[in-house]
Amino acid sequence: MNKETEDLLNRGVGEFIDPGGIFREKLEKNPEKIVIKFGIDPTRPDIHLGHAVLLRKLRQFQDLGAKVVFVVGDYTAQIGDPTGKSKVRPAIDQAEVERNMATFIEQIGKILRTDKNVFSWIRNSDWFTAITDISAPMGQKLKMTLPSGQTVDDIDANSFVGKALIFTETRMQIKDLGLKEDISVITLQSFLWMLKHVTHAKLIERDLFQERIKNQQDLYLHEMMYPILQGIDSLVLSRIYKSCDLEIGGTDQHFNMLMGRTVMRVNNEVEQSVLSLKLLEGIDGKEKMSKSLDNYIAITDKHGDMYGKVMSIPDSSIGNYFELTTFTPMDEVENIRKGLSNKSIHPKEIKMDLARQIVAIYHGERAAEEAEKNFTETFSKGGVPADIKTVKMSKDTPLVEILLEQGLVSSKTEFNRLTKSGAIKEMANGVYRIGKHRFLKIER
C-alpha cells in the first residue's frame, strides 16, 4: 500500500477496524466501488472545524473514487443520540430538522465534492416511517392518475390510498435514487427481530451507559435503542447502494459504528469496516469542539474571526490542530511537536502559521494574508480591526443592551462578569473591545 493510502488510514485515526483487510484490499483494487457511510444528526446547522476533520477525511476517499453517502438522521434526531451526554438529550422537532439539514447540506460543498458519482445523501426517515405513520392535515385532498390515464380527484390524504400516495411521492429511494422495487422499510416486526440478536449485556458495555449507571442517573430504553437504530442505517444503506464498506465517525461514535457490523452480520451482509477519528478539542484546549460549549471555530466564520480564534488556542493544542485540520505532512507535524516540547520553536510564530493555513483552506490565500496582517496590526500593535462592525444607537441605549442585541454577550450576567474583570474596554472613537477578539464600534 502506498504512502498516500497509509496516511489516509492512519492520520488522525483513533481506531481502524478492518478484520481480514477486506476494506484495504477493495481500496487498492476497486476504490470506485466503495461506499462510505457518514451519519449526521441535523440538530445544529453550522459546521465547525471538529466536523471538518471528518469531512476532510471523506474528501480524501472521494479523491480516490469512493462514494460518500450522508445518512441524515432526521428520524433518529427526534429520539436523540445520548453520545457525550450525561443527561437525556431532548428530541428535536421535524421542522427544525428540515431547516438545519438544508443549511448543513449547503455548507459541505466547501469541503466535499457533491457530484453524483462520489456523493449522495438520504434521510433515515425514508425507512423508519411506514405508510401508516403518515399524517396529513385534516381535509387535505389528493389527485391520482391511474395507469389508464384516468384521473381520480378528491382522495382523502389520510385514507390508506392517500397515505400510500404521499409515501410514494416522498421516498427518496424512489424519487431521488430511482428504485422501483425492494424499497427498504423497517417495521416493528423487523426491528424486534434485530433486538433478538443484541443482548442487554452488550448494550450496557458502552462507556456512557456505564457512567450513567455508576452515577445512579436515569438511563432510558430509547437511548439504549439508538446504537441499534444507527446499525440498521448501515444495513439499509448496504441494500440501497449495494454495499456499505466503511463507516466514518469520531471516537465517541465507535460503539455505535461497531453495532452496524453486528446488525449487518446477523442479516448476512458483508460487515462494514469502521474508521474512528480523533476528536478535535475546542479553543479552550479541554473539551471536544462543540457549539453548546461555545468553544468552536465555524467554517463559515469570517476570515479575521477564524484567524483570531485559532490564535487563542492553548499551546498544548497546536500539534493536534496541525494534524487534524491542515495538510501539513505528518513528519513535519511531529517535528513541530518536538520543537514545542524542547522550546526550539516559538509557539506564537508556529500558531500564526497554523492560523494562516486554516484560513487559507476555507477562505483562500488572499484572505489568509489579510487576516494575518489585520491580526498583527490589531493585537501586536494595539490597533483596531479594519473590518470592525459599526452600529448606530441612541445615546440613551445602555451598553449592555447593545452588546446583547449584537450577540457579543449572552446575558446580563456575562456582561457584569466581563465588566468586573476588565474584559470590556472602551477605546477611541466609540470602539469597544469585548474580551480578546471581539470589537464593536458604536455611533451615537
UniProtKB/TrEMBL annotation:
Swiss-Prot/TrEMBL GO biological process terms: tyrosyl-tRNA aminoacylation
Catalytic reaction equation(s): tRNA(Tyr) + L-tyrosine + ATP = L-tyrosyl-tRNA(Tyr) + AMP + diphosphate + H(+)
Pfam families reported in the protein's UniProt record: tRNA-synt_1b
Class in the EC hierarchy, top level: ligase
Coiled-coil stretches noted in the UniProt entry, renumbered to this chain: none
Classification via NCBIfam families: tyrS
Protein name: Tyrosine--tRNA ligase
Organism: Candidatus Zambryskibacteria bacterium CG22_combo_CG10-13_8_21_14_all_42_17
Phylogenetic placement of the source organism: Bacteria, Candidatus Zambryskiibacteriota
